[in-house]
Amino acid sequence: MKFNKGRRGRLDPEINFIPLIDVLLVILIFLMATTTYSKFAELKINLPTADAEKQLEQPQSIQVGVSGAGQFMINGEPAQFSSPDDFAVQLRRAAGSNADPMIVISADAQTSHQNVVNVMEAARVAGYGKLTFATQTTGQK
User: Fold this and answer.
1) Which of 42, 44, 72, 135 could form a disulfide with 50 if both were Cys (CB 3.0 to 4.6 A apart)?
2) Distances in whole angstroms, Cα of residue 129 to Cα of each of 19, 48, 132
3) pLDDT digits (tens, 9 = 90+) for 71-96
4) Coiled-coil intervals in this record (predicted)?
5) Per CATH, which fold does 61-133 belong to?
6) Which residues pair with 66 in a beta bridge?
């Protein structure tokens, strides 16, 4: 009996990837169609209230007020600025001889977050590391 005497070597088996790709595409389409995507429509945050007693005015503090319309005040005087660097110069002027005064930020509830961040950035540029926020008491004891 003659078994493949004329052949010199064995043929390597071929792996056909086309059916594998087809199956993977079907699985991918199935996963995309059945996946649920959750969206957060809004972020609900309950902000804390403060019931502490009002502290006495400290002569080493700078009061910075931010209104809902984006107007700024330093120690009760209106302040205009175009960049945090300009506002830092005004903070240094208000500090006078104080090396590291406490910056008290009184921001309106309707003010934009960016306005408060601008005040914080100006305090950092001016070299003042003590920041605090003024709160409103609830009136209940």
Assistant:
1) 135
2) 65, 23, 10
3) 888 888 888 888 888 888 888 888 88
4) none
5) Nucleotidyltransferase; domain 5 (3.30.420)
6) 72, 107
